[in-house]
Design a protein that fits this description.
mainly alpha, globular, disordered C terminus, DUF2306_membrane, transmembrane
Length: 211
């Protein structure tokens, strides 16, 4: 690939890793908190009582976000990275999606019904996209493989976008309204999926270069 096409690819990688940074760092801090034994509060007591789904979610989501970002690097794709990383990417994504569903259904999370429903819908959609992407590559359907994997990655990267969509709440007077927070969280997933569909359908997009 020529220099002119390589640079945009690495720009995309840098942007995706930057978007992943906040949830990855927050996850690492949570793991450190669990490993050190506290302090325990009303907010995190459920994690200390049943840490397994949280640990699986953090590890799976962190690996999925970082490996997924590197899939957009043209030079690494030429060196066979895409196929090798893909063998880890799909399991990491499935662990992240399924453990997210596990937490939603098992933890006593002070969320609104709308947000809980959103977590179930998008977590299930992420797992389905990854399964469909894996099935497509098994039958050598590269176009559908790219499309489904980009959709699954977009959902998995939702936590990064949600940092941005939730920012208006920091300027609000008083405690945030539960419904407003739920809608802003869901907006993060919707925005990512909209961008994913645009990339998939854009004839000259990086999506068409992924192997």
């Amino acid at each position: 690939m020529q220099k002119g096409t390589t640079r945009p690819g690495w720009t995309a990688v840098a942007g995706l890793i930057t978007l992943s940074a906040v949830p990855v760092i927050a996850g690492a801090a949570r793991l450190t908190e669990l490993g050190s034994g506290g302090p325990i509060s009303a907010e995190n007591a459920r994690f200390f009582a049943a840490p397994l789904p949280l640990v699986l979610h953090i590890v799976g989501a962190s690996g999925f976000c970082v490996l997924g970002a590197l899939q957009f690097a043209p030079r690494l794709r030429r060196r066979g990275w895409h196929r090798t990383a893909g063998r880890w990417l799909v399991p990491c994504g499935l662990v992240a999606a399924l453990s997210g569903l596990w937490m939603t259904l098992s933890y006593q999370i002070p969320d609104s019904v709308v947000l809980a429903a959103g977590r179930i819908v998008f977590g299930s959609a992420m797992a389905l996209c990854l399964v469909l992407g894996f099935a497509a590559i098994r039958r050598r359907d590269f176009i559908q493989h790219r499309a489904w994997m980009i959709r699954g990655y977009a959902i998995g990267l939702g936590a990064g976008t949600q940092v941005l969509t939730l920012m208006p709440l920091s300027f609000a007077d008083g405690p945030p309204d539960a419904l407003s927070r739920a809608l802003l969280v869901i907006a993060g997933w919707v925005i990512n999926l909209a961008v994913a569909e645009w990339l998939i359908r854009k004839p000259t997009s990086v999506a068409k270069e992924i192997r």
